[in-house]
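Lab meeting, item 3. Inverse folding demo.
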């Protein structure tokens, strides 16, 4: 039986959706994008051009929900399916766009460069419990104008896994789309086998900027999947209550669904978000807070009630180091997300309020994800009945270590973590160096990065990716790309 966790009853879900629709009808959304406003106007929305406001109708909302797909699939660079984003299927992806990395040698955060990203991408190839990459860190050795496309470029070069990404500007979308087309071979092939998910973020409260709304429309045009990342903060830029914040999240996300589906009915998207409880004591946004996790899980319930696949930023920590807090918050978020059936769970590797990535934490989080995914498989009989013959063998031999039943089901029934997780007895642990968690994780990072081998795309595609990226950086004054080895 697949275990599932629910926080909202049907009556409350329906009331939250109803109130969110009323917000969109009565207050509407501020949308700083002429194309989006015209699209809404063409379908009956009331537009106030002076204030960039659009008031939605029930007919527009219903039309969008009717065409929005209940799931979609992702594929790696070689065209192999990696994700079925539907039902209660759960996949993990690292947190994205960190402006710092945690340096294991110094124990301090610093600004990342290309070499950090390459190590990250190579490591990602070996982390089996994290199904996709993200454009996880922002290298500072290329012009700001190309950091979004450059991150995608590096991911496509060094790891075949699909990529959760996003564009910082309107102009960069075209290059990011072209990079994907190089890998797939054509726009039609990219549509048939999506390679990325783009994060698109409304601005709380009840607003779409020109950049994010244009990214949303551009992705819809090419059927590139998006995840709507609504970011209400309780008691600050959303109501202090969880239910009130869910109403706002639902309204903001529902407006994204409408824009996507009006632009291209059937375009794939995830009902997602990165909400947080706002801690007024420190003026921070704790992603590991219990209230944040409640909002994440409940928002997914609402998305599923509307028939959409879901996403959440919920497997991460606000800690500054790889410490007990980092493990506590990340494991709690990953476990709840899996039990809630959130389809794409973002966050592994992240620290410090979504601003820092740690490769050592990413290795630990890969194990946390493995634990959580094992929980999701639940409990089921595996040739356990009739039970008497198994116990006859146990009583006869005194153990079942090499029994047919054990050999048949050991690997299916049990999750065995890497040596990052210490399961040795104390004497063996001491013999092997008495390593701390951080030391074991760092050893695993070094091993997996060293074992990396090229794969995913051919030399022709690599050459074309480099050509496109070199042309882009030259436009902003950089004569050649940074060293990638």
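The presenter then showed the designed sequence:
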């Amino acid at each position: 039986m697949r275990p599932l966790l629910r926080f909202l009853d049907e009556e409350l879900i329906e009331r939250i959706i109803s109130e969110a629709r009323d917000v969109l009808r009565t207050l509407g959304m501020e949308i700083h994008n002429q194309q989006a406003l015209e699209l809404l106007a063409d379908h009956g929305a009331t537009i106030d051009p002076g204030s960039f406001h659009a008031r939605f109708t029930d007919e527009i909302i219903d039309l969008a929900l009717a065409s929005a797909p209940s799931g979609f699939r992702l594929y790696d660079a070689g065209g192999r399916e990696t994700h079925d984003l539907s039902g209660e299927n759960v996949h993990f992806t690292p947190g994205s766009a960190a402006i710092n990395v945690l340096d294991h040698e110094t124990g301090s955060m610093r600004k990342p460069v290309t070499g950090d990203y390459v190590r990250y991408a190579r490591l990602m190839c070996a982390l089996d419990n994290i199904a996709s990459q993200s454009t996880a860190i922002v290298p500072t050795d290329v012009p700001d104008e190309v950091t979004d496309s450059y991150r995608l470029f590096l991911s496509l070069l060094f790891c075949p896994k699909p990529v959760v990404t996003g564009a910082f500007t309107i102009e960069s979308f075209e290059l990011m789309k072209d990079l994907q087309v190089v890998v797939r071979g054509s726009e039609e092939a990219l549509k048939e086998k999506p390679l990325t998910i783009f994060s698109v973020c409304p601005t709380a409260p009840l607003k779409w900027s020109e950049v994010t709304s244009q990214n949303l429309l551009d992705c819809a045009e090419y059927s590139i999947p998006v995840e709507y990342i609504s970011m209400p903060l309780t008691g600050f830029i959303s109501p202090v209550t969880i239910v009130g914040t869910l109403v706002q999240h639902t309204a903001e996300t529902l407006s994204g669904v409408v824009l996507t589906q009006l632009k291209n009915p059937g375009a794939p998207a995830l009902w997602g978000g990165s909400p947080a409880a706002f801690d007024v004591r420190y003026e921070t946004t704790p992603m590991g807070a219990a209230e944040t996790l409640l909002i994440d899980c409940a928002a997914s319930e609402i998305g599923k009630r509307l028939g959409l696949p879901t996403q959440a930023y919920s497997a991460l920590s606000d800690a500054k180091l790889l410490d007990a807090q980092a493990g506590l918050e990340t494991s709690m978020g990953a476990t709840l997300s899996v039990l809630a059936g959130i389809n794409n769970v973002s966050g592994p590797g992240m620290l410090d309020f979504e601003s820092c990535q740690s490769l050592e934490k990413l290795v630990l989080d890969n194990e946390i994800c493995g634990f959580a995914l094992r929980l999701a498989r639940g409990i089921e009989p595996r040739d356990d009945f009739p039970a008497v013959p198994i116990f006859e063998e146990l009583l006869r031999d005194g153990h079942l270590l090499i029994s047919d039943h054990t050999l048949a089901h050991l690997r299916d029934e049990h999750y065995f973590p890497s040596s990052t997780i210490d399961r040795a007895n104390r004497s063996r642990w001491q013999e092997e160096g008495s390593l701390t968690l951080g030391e074991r994780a760092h050893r695993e990072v070094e091993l997996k990065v060293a074992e990396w081998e090229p794969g995913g795309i051919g030399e022709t595609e690599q050459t074309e990716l480099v050509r496109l990226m070199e042309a882009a950086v030259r436009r902003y004054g950089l004569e050649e790309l940074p060293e990638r080895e």
